[in-house]
Design goal:
Structural class: alpha/beta
Mean pLDDT: 79
Helix content: 55-70%
Radius of gyration: 25 Å
Distance between the termini: 55 Å
Low-confidence stretches: none
Oligomer: single chain
Shape: globular
Length: 362
Amino acid sequence: MAGGSIVLGKIFGIDIELHWSFVLILLIAALYNLLVEIVILFAMVVVHELAHSVTSRRNGLNVKKILLLPFGGASIVELDNATPEVSFRVALVGPLTSILLGVVFGALAVYAPPGPLEQTFQWLFLLNMLLGIFNLVPAFPLDGGRVLKSYLEKGMGKLEATKIAVKVSEVALVLFIAASVLYEFSLSPSQSGWIFTLGWDVILAIFIYGGAKAELESAYIVKYTENLRVRDAISRNFVMVRPTAPMRSVYSTLLRRGTHIVLFMRNGRVCMVNKLPSTYGSMPPDVLGRSVEGFGSDLPTVDYNSRLSRAIEKMRYEEAPIVAVLRAGKVAGVLLGDHVEAIIALHMPQAIASRKAAAGAK
């Protein structure tokens, strides 16, 4: 289990994880005898996402994992330093891979003998073509939205490009919902048919609208916190201990320092002690004598002088509310999610006002 996800394994060294909510899809599919079809569908989604991830690596980007969700998949890639050209290639390669797979399966269907094999190839042809074409719709968080943003970004900057891409996303969403409801109603004017379609569209709308707003929020944060560095949001409210320190001494240090964050080094990596009981007395006596290294897990790290926006992105894709801050290879402090959000909330209005004043003075 990793942050609410189930690790299925690795392909090309990339972790493949299944979000816990995906289990609901599998259960529903099993009830309707569609389990095989769902497994094949998401096998094609994995291929689609691998195309994103492999292209990202070839362009020097850090790939964290591939996460399978009920609505599809997501390649968790660190795009902070990616140029618009690289982002364009990474976004476009997924849909093109699916369409190419569709062409291959279509050709196999043409030459396959009539029967189950031909039907399977026809289904895989249709499945991959739909997966590729649907992802080219210019709406966040679909690949088409990222393709559009990357293309626009070449001439107008990330924030303005994201604003336009989000507006296009909203228009595309309205048109898609209207078209799907009208199509369903034309086939089956019964109330149950189009109400089901409308319900599914509402879920899809929440998914796309939420993804678009998250993308815009991220662009605003990058733009208006460009002068902020990790050092501006660092917290030194932590305790660094030896990995061999007994838990008994750790609790004594915590009481003295008034913190709950305990860090130590293990095999050159920063680790944090997790799931500490709220009181000293609630810890079993046999545990108090054990060393701290048996209670920790690896903690993501960021550089002391790196941009704060980059650290925020890392916290997001690592699903980490806390990251360790390194300075010259040593732990200088920690970044806390709540603390960072408070700093951004205070800084952004001032940054926006300053930019408006500067623009008005020109």
